[in-house]
Structure formats: structure tokens, C-alpha cells
User: Fold these one by one.
Assistant:
Number 1:
Amino acid sequence: MLWSDPENKPPKELRDAQAMMRRAGLVLALAMVVAMFAVGMR
């Protein structure tokens, strides 16, 4: 990577979409843990 290379930053829409997907994945993982806990309690 040279100092003269253009910056490789994704556009704002892509960064926002990535952040949203990361949050959705986190919520989904948390929901799975809660579901497994609820099933285990029965």
C-alpha cells in the first residue's frame, strides 16, 4: 500500500448496512441463547 494510493473506504451506505447487519446478528445470537435457555427450563 503506497501513500499515494486512494483511500479504500466503503461508502456511507455500505458502512451503515454493515453496522445494521452486525447489530442484527448480535440480536439473533442473543435470541438463540434465550430460546435455548427457555427450552432447557421446560
Number 2:
Amino acid sequence: MGKLTVTLVSIAIVIVYGIVWIANPNGYFGMILTFVIVAAIGVTWMLVIRYAVTITRTVTLTGVGVGYALRSVSQSIWAAEDHLVGFPSGTFEVKTGDESNSVIATEFVPKGSGGIVLSFIRIPGAIAATIFLAFAQFGVFGFFIGFFLAAIGLGIFLMLFVVPLAIAWLVEIAFKPLLKSQISVTASEADDAVTLEFRFRGASALLVMKRILRAFDTPVLPPRYAGMVPIPATSAPAIAT
């Protein structure tokens, strides 16, 4: 994911946090509301990108067949993958489309992050149990002090971290199958040229679009070497529009 995208998303989250905090500076539910608002904005934005936005680009290759052109598409998608952690994954699974002259790359949907939520529950639970057992060694008085400190610490941790993570996990389970990106490519052959029509849908597809199309640019040698290598008449230039 590009630095500009990360920066813009971070700024948006900070702005939402600020608005909610000003509206309700002392309430814990204000924090929970912040996570809900951020999740709602993010999901809505990604749903719009997935289903309301389709960007089409065409690439023309000369001197090659449909099979070679589609194999080149698969390789360009593999090379351009984002390999993000979590979801969107930025990783695509390429398969033959309904027609033999097409391929469809669907974003891989990883398993949910429920294990992370469970880890966040287990770790503070173990720490709270250690605190409780340490104080319990000092008799009844220590038993109650340990229980009080462990309960307070565990409660604060759950409210600040586990509840927001649980909300994010539920949102992920509900929406990630709907948000996975798709890149569909159809090849058409005429004379000695093959035209590839790309359709990009979804956030991850749009993020890797330029890198995929760049794979079909005609290579250009540096000026000092350009005059030393003649360009053959049967070269296969690529034109992206």
C-alpha cells in the first residue's frame, strides 16, 4: 500500500477520533463509538469502491497469441501484488474465466483475526492471575488486594483493547467476503495483434493497477545504450490506454 494512502487513512482516523472526543471527552462509550464510526466509514468507502467504481484499461500486444498474452497477464498480476498483511490481502488468485480468452483474478481472503482477539484476552488474563496469586501468598488481606488489582487491570485492558478489536473482528467477518477485489481481463485477437481489456474493481485492484499495466510498457534503454541495440522489426510494443 502506498505511503500516500496510509497517510490519508491515518489522517481520516485522527480526525474522526478528535470529533468524537470533543463531543464526549469523558465517556468510555465515546471511544467505542469512535471505533464504530471508523469501521462504518471504512466499510462504506470500500463498498463504494468495490461495486460503484470500475476502471477499464486496454493493452495491445503485437506479434503474440492469445495464450501468451494471458500468461503475461497472470505473471504481471503476480509481480504486482501488494502482499499486505490482514485484509485487504493484496494477493490475487488467477483463474481462467468463463470464456477461454479471459482470466479473472480474485483477491485472496485470509482467515479471520479471531485468534488475535483471543490472544489479547489470554495474555492479560495470565498476567492478572499472576498478580492475584502473588498477593494471595500474604493471607486474606493480600487475597483481596490481589483480586482487586487483577480485576481492575484486566477490566481496563479489556475495555481499551479487546472490545475495539472484537468490533473490528466482527466487521471483518461480516464484510470481507463482499470487499475482495477482482481484476478481469478479456483478450481479443485481430490480425497480428491481441488487445487485452482490463477491468479493475475494489481497493486492492486499484492500488496495483499501475504496476500491472507498467509490466506491458515498452522497455526503454538509457540514452547511452539506446543507439547500440537495434530494435527488430518484429518487436511487440505494448500500448496502454
Number 3:
Amino acid sequence: MNKIFLLTFVFAYIQFFAQHKIELSYANQYDDFIEINLYIDKPSSKFDLINFDTLTVTDNTQKVLKENKEYPINYNYNNGDTKVKRYYIPAHQFKTVDIKGVMKYFKPSKDNDSYFDLGTLNEIKRNTNLVDKKINAKNPELYFSIVDSTTINKIFPDFSYTISDDEEYKKIDFKSYDLIYAYRYNDKQKLIYFINDNPDPGYNNLSIGDKKTGITYKFIKLKKGMTPTEKDQIRIELMIENEKSIQRIPFELKNIVIEKK
């Protein structure tokens, strides 16, 4: 009976991980960094999110590559089927690398208390933390809010900015944006938001970080000539990870050749 159970368990275990096979998308060396892109066969959905739990890249001389965080990159969950990390180029010569790690597969849902439909913009209270109070009590660092100009002017009273050296500094034109939201998360527990089904919406966006609180304020333009009625119907969804909603998938890729670009 025990042997039958063991065989059944092993078969189920192999089937489970076969459903989430992780492969190398590419491994390239550019002028300033090495970029590793991994693919997982999953749906591109806001209810199927991925992030690295751990990732270690070791070259054939047994030296571990150091992660490079100097260039903008998303270190949170995404709803695609690839994840990227960047590394410094070693000073020594090497031929191949081994890649070993664990992928976190986050499936948010109402049942496991990790999915929150906050409703449309006309229903959402401004300038307040929208993270569920039970979650916030355990992790007060988590923060997500829809804010308005009064909050921005209070926190950044003298703020002005320029996009390039050729332009003069200017104040924020609040009428240029359809929405302002604020967020903060940490390595202990991450959150991701969807605005009209998009985790990174808008164009000509502006981000301001508050060093005192660690909260980032993001100004977004969703659509040219967006009407007040359309703005009222902007839908906000919030996903907050917890152990009930995460699968950890270990993987290992050996003897990978880094291609120079």
C-alpha cells in the first residue's frame, strides 16, 4: 500500500512541475551587464503572476555572478511568461554558467484572501491606505492609495522637475494626468495592482519617491481627452501575496553559454 502511494505521489509531483516548465529564453552579455531571461509556460493573466524567489548564476570557475541593480527593471510580480535579472560582467574569463533558483507562481483569488477588487474610481476613498486592515496589521509597510493634488502638495510643497538638461524646471500640471496612485511594499510581502486590467498603465508617466516614508507616487495619463465619466469608471484591482496563494517552483539550467551582443 505504501509503495503504491509513493509511486502515485512521485507521478503527481512530476506532472505538477511538468505543467510549469521553466526554460531559458536568452542569456546575453551587453556593454554594461549580463541579462538572464527565463520563460515559464503559463497563461498571461492577472491571476497567474510570476516573480523570482531566488536565483543564483554560477560560472564554470565556480564564482557567483553579482546582481546588477543599476538599470531600471521590475523586481515585482508580472503577468507575462518571462522574468529578467541582470548581473555585472565578471573581470575574469568564463565559458558557461549554471542557473539555479526558485520561481514564485502567485495565483491571487478572493478565496485565499489575496485578490481585492477595489471597484471603480468614483467608489474609492482618496488619500487613505486601501490595503485590507487585517493584512496591514501583520505588515504595516504595505501601502496602496489613490491620492489627489492636496496630498502631493502637502508632501512635496516645492517640487519641480525637468525631463532633460535643455528644459527648464516646472511644477506638476495635475490636469495632465488622469490618476495619481501611491504604493509601498517590501520583500516580506509584495503587492501588485491592475488599473483597467493593466499592471503598468498609461504614458508620459511621472513617479516621485518620498524618502521619509518609502512610498512612491505615480502620475499616469491613460488616454488623450479622457472624460470625467471615463475617469470615474477606471477599475482598480489589488493583489497581495500570501503563502496560501503561492507555489514555489525549483529549477536548474546547466552549461548555459552567454551570447555577446
Number 4:
Amino acid sequence: MKRYWLLATLIPFCVIAMGTYYVSGTGDQKPEYVLKTMKGSESDAAGLQIKVNMDGITAAVSTKGSESDVEQLSYLGRLDAESYYEDDLKRLVKEHRSFMRGKNDVNAFYEDDQVLAYVGTEAHNDVSKKQSNQLTISIMGKLDEETSSFQVLTGKKNDEYINIHDVQVKDQIMKVLVNRMRTDKYPQFYHVGYDMYTIDLSNKSLLKSEQILAAETQSNEIRTTTWFISGNAQIGPSGYAIFDSSENKIIDKVVERQTVKRNEGLVNREIRVYDIWNGQWRTLQSEPLHSFLMEDNSMGMSIQYANQELSLAAISESKDTHVMVVNVAENRVIRDVQLPLQALQKEWGRVNYSLVEKDRLYLLMSGRPKPAAVIVELQTGNTLYQGEVERKDQNSIGYINANGIKIQK
């Protein structure tokens, strides 16, 4: 056996060396991308980043180049970083790494200047498995960094799955908003409704579990469907939960010799606001907003909520693009503009993502070989900037998935 000792020693060394070379080599050859200015000034795109996915790695492309926090990390470090892809989560990992272990659902966090909290659900990342009705509440004091955790049981049924939308904390009371879904056969989901859990952090107990809204109802040939509008500032204090509610007329239609229910047309659409702490509902009622929601938007409408403002953008290739901003607390339309962007869309391709930020409309365009970004000034309707994503080495861009826009403050 002694004659094999040298071979046994060399084999692991060769494997490690070859693996290191392969990882290093591929890392050196990984292409870099940049947002190349085509029209306008590069300074107008300062802070603009296009979120892309390349071979499973998330990166941000700007006029300065492409950035990915995981490319230079070890394999294990890359796995860790990919779990915390949101900027808020990256910051929390740096500041409270021990507390963050195993916690990566950005919607399940709450943070203020005194407390950091997290609500964990079992089997959250594996929806093919049954999910228990147990929630794990983790709390850390920001001043002394002392941590505690406990479990509470909800009334969720065995064939249901809950997805956390928001967590809020005030005066030792926690509010957890969840979307409850039913699974008949994976991966088919049927939305049941939205529940609010009220948890006493002092006594470590569930005080109340109630359904605040059904996801879908049907009455007198009218089907009402409601969707939660996710906020951009996901982990901080917020007093409201915002929902988009649509009423559609339904008819019986024969499809392949079977009678099925089909939507015939939009009857009504409204934005409903739930006050998390007093449990009351109200509707954002203004004629400009209601007319906007009732428009025929063949390309759909993007709705975003951040800093007490609701931003709506209806993109169209056949008519003017409509943008509206509403102050939720005051129930007041603070911006309402029509933008003639048909020629721009014809030139740069279909809009697959839009974002309203302050006085600007940011558009991510597809339909051309290279993803493109456009910035439009809302007050004047002028196009301030147009740029395309390309490789720094000028080679063919190949396949790259551009899926969002982020504005660095």
C-alpha cells in the first residue's frame, strides 16, 4: 500500500488546483456590461441601474459599468450573498450577521430605531411541501442587540399556504399581513384571502387572527378580484396596506364542449386602503383616479407604493402614456400627466418595466437586441435620456435578462 501514497496525495491536490483554475479562469472571462448613452446627457442617468441576470448571477448595470456583489466571493460566500440580494438585506447582514442567519424574506422583516423583527414560516422556500401553521417570531433590540424568539400557531389549514406581505410593530404589538392560498395540486394555487395576525410580543402569544379581505368573490354575475400592492420601502414603519380591487362581469362560455366562466368586461376598479392599526377600510375616491383606473389599458398598468405616495403608470403604444401620483394619507391627486411616447416606443421597443421616481418616469425597454433605458421628465414630457446595455469589449451581448430598474439615492 505504501507505493500508492504519492498517487493518493497528488489526486486531491490536482482536483483542487484544476477547480481553482476553472473558477478563476471563468471569473476572468466573465463579460462586463455598461449602460451606453445614446441620447441625452450621462449625468441625467446618474443613479440609474438596470437589474439584470447573467447565468444565474444578479447584477446592476449603470453608466459606470456592471456590479455584482457575488462575483469575487468564494462559492459558499456566493450562496450566502445570493440569498440576500435586496439592498436592505445586504445592509442588515453587514450590521447584524448573527441575527440574519437563515432569514432572507424581505417582506417578513420590520425595522425601526429600536427593534429589528422577523417572522419565519416553515417550508417557505419549498411550496411543494405542506406548510405548518407555526410562525417563528424573532426579535432583536437595536440598543443592546439582545435577541429572543418564540413560536405561535395560526389557524391555517393543512392544504393552505401563507405568504407574508408585511410586518409592523408598535408598543409591543406586532401586525403580520399574509396572503393565504390553497394548493389543490402543486404548482396550482388558488388565492383564498388576506389575513392579519395580531401578536403580543410581551406575552409571546397570538391575540387575534382574522381575514380582512377575500381575494376573490362572486355575486350577481360580477366577480371581484383583489391584489396586494407591494411597497418599495418594505421593512420600515407603514400605517397602510394598499389593494387593487377589480370588478368584472362574467358570462358562461362554451369551450371545448364545456361551460366555463369568462370575464366579459371591467365594471369597476378601485384602490382600497386598510389602516393597519385601527382596522378600518377606505377607498381612494377621486374622479381623476377612478377614470384613470377604468381606462382600457391593453398593455397593463404598473402601480407602486412608497413614502405615502401611490404611483400609477399606464403604458400604451396606441395612445398617450398616462401617469398619476396620489398622496394616500390625504386622498389627493398630486400629479396627473399624459405623455406622447408612441414614437419613442416604436423606436426603442416595448416597455416591460416602469418606475415613477420624483419628477421622472423611468422605462425599461425590450424588443431590440439590447435592453434599453429611457428617462422622461414628467413636468415637460421631454425625453432626458436614452441608453442601451452593451458589453464593454464591444462583442455581441448574447442573452441577458433585464428585469427591473433601481434608482440609487
